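Lay summary. Proteins are chains of building blocks that fold into shapes, and those shapes determine what they do. In this project we predict the shape from the chain. Here is one chain we studied, written as its sequence of building blocks.
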Amino acid sequence: MALDADSALGLQVKEIYYDIINGKGTKKVYEEGANEREEAKHVKKLDKRRAKELKKQQKKLKAESAAQEGSDDELPFWMQDASIKAAMRDKALEEARKNAESSSDSSGSSSSGSDKKKKKKKKDKKKKKDSKKKKKDKKKKKKKKSSSSSSS
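And here is the predicted shape, written in a compact code that computers can read:
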């Protein structure tokens, strides 16, 4: 008994075959209204998890950026020479002195802060004057050398 498309049995088999392929009647039909509550719960849960992961990521980025900002001032060990190390020690001592003064002088800290600013300005002015003076001296020496060599 051969199954051909024309026979009743052949048509029935063909129909069942296509129903199986298309998934008709084999799966439960999804109903929007019945599952709304579960969907809302699921969406809320996903949003919560996403927000938590985002906060964790932002915290991690902040920590990395803070670590990078702190390390900008410091040079790698192999690049440091004696002058850089001395400057770093001076900076550390200055910070320690500042911390000690601020903790001991909590009431007079505003006046000492302005005094420090004034001292710093004076130092900067003095450095500028010294550098200008050195430049002038160099120019004078060059002029003397050039005038003495041209007259000889």
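What the prediction tells us: DSSP finds four helices and no strands in the chain.
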